[in-house]
Amino acid sequence: MMQPSTRMRYQISPYHFTDRPHEMTAFLQAVGLRVEASKDGWADLVGAGGRVGIHPLASSGVEAMSTSLCLLAPDAIAVADQLQQAGLEARWWDESFGRQAAVRGPYGELTINEPMTDFHGYQRHDVTPAPGDPEVTVIAVLFTPDFDVAAGFFAGFGFVGDESREGWRPLRADETSGAIGLHTADHDPVPGYACGLSFETTEDLSSFADRLRAHGYRVDHDAIAPQVTVIDPDGNRIEVHPAGDPVT
Predict the structure, then answer these.
(1) What is the pTM of this model?
(2) Could you tell me if residue 124 is inside a domain?
(3) Concatenated DSSP letters for 133-201?
(4) In what helix (H) or strand (E) does residue 71 lie, and over which residues does it extend?
(5) Tell me: the pLDDT tens digits for 169-209?
(6) Is residue 164 located within the same domain as residue 192?
(7) Given this model, what pLDDT does residue 247 score?
């Protein structure tokens, strides 16, 4: 397995495919992410750690609403070269919005995107946080029965975590990478690195829960856990945890 590398910095960048793209974008903004670029329902949102891409289902070629784990790296060609040198099956190619790479892993091909540089036709937005804005970290939740296999693969991208945890293991590369949350399951993930979304926030959870209720979202606040569960516009249960909480 590829050894952890410090030559390339990676962020998680899950893509969520939905037939309610505007509603999902508004929901993620309410959680605390900021829109960096948008066009025709597509949106790229950033947090203090990690990001999320919203993609309209009708124009994606994907058959059902879903979320797929992707990574973001500064140079797709260098990524593919580095992965090939580590003995992995990797490739790169050009898209209209930039270059992409992909690598064969334990659950199929994992896509690695470059940051968008050609914004022709896209609306760009200021993502500078206002004073007092909470810091929100994106967590891509990957359900798997074998933490060691998944953790060994993602360690090659610098994502590491506490091996003593049972049932849950967050993997992080740095403060801005976002996290890959391994969650116990009785079956392997479906091909394509399908994942769930979760978040950490520095905002007080009671205030967060009240604020999202005011936006009209269904919210359950468990002060003992502690966590907030909110139903997103697609009907998914989204967990939000306090930043630095030992559970996450």
Answers:
(1) 0.93
(2) no
(3) PPPEEEEEEEEES-HHHHHHHHHTTT-B--TT-SSEEEEESSTTS-EEEEEE-SSPPPTTTB-EEEEEE
(4) strand 71-72
(5) 999 999 999 999 999 998 877 778 999 999 999 999 999 99
(6) yes
(7) 45
Instruction: For residues 218 and 189, state if they share a domain.
Output: yes
Domain that holds residue 40: 11-116
Q: Is residue 247 in a domain?
A: no
Q: From residue 3, give the alpha-carbon distance in Å to each of 6, 83, 135.
A: 10, 10, 30
Same-domain check for residues 141 and 110? no
| Distance separating alpha carbons of residues 236 and 23, to the nearest angstrom | 13
Backbone angles phi, psi at 207, to 5 degrees: -65, -40
CB atoms within 10 A of CB 59: 12
Q: At what angle do helices 205-214 and 21-31 cross, to 10 degrees?
A: 150
Query: Of 61, 82, 116, which one is at a domain's C-terminal end?
Result: 116
Q: Which CATH number does the domain housing residue 235 bear?
A: 3.10.180.10
How many other CB atoms sit within 10 Å of the CB of residue 132? 6
Which residues, 6+ apart, have CB-to-CB distance to 38 below 8 Å? Answer: 25, 44, 122, 123, 125
